[in-house]
Write a structure and sequence with these properties.
Blueprint (H helix, E strand, L loop, with lengths): L6 E7 L6 H10 L7 E2 L2 H25 L7 H12 L5 E4 L3 E7 L8 E5 L3 E11 L5 E12 L10 E5 L2 E7 L16
Parallel strand pairs: 2-5
Antiparallel strand pairs: 1-7, 3-4, 4-9, 5-6, 6-7, 8-9
Amino acid sequence: MLIIHAHLNLRCKTGDRMSSPARRFKSSSVSRNPKPEILSEEGGRGLLDEFNNRVARRAYERFDQDGRVDGNDLSHWLEAENELAPPPPYVRELADSFVAHILLPEGSGENVKVYATGDRAIVCAESSSADGAGQTQSSESTYYMIRWPESVDIPSCTPGLDNRNLTLQVRKADRRLGASLDGSREP
């Protein structure tokens, strides 16, 4: 199966008190197509932990609602993911790579983080809304989890962003010992 996993919307209050002129400067200085941030191992683990914590809280709520009956933890987890997630992104398999296409929510294209591992990628797109005075009122994070059908070459993960369309491409890991992904032999 090529497509799997989750997309999760979260809202939280923030205390951003940036003045209107500063906000105008910030938004005017941002590129139309900013490049998504590829997270390091440490930053990515934090992102993955946050995502899993949100799903775990919802799974616990389902456990509580079902009368705290033991033995349904996996179904509660999967139900929580499905409840919090619209359909997963489209993933296409090419001869030497996988490509995932994700349509990001309105206003979330300027702060996109990607964490890739050998078997999956997690994407977090953050957007915020402002009140009439220009102050940030709330922030929304949308998570996407893509499970690759086979091992991939983590450093080759390349994100591209065009408006709200995020594309992730990652090469398949070469299973032959001593061979690089371009087919040449390493010394």
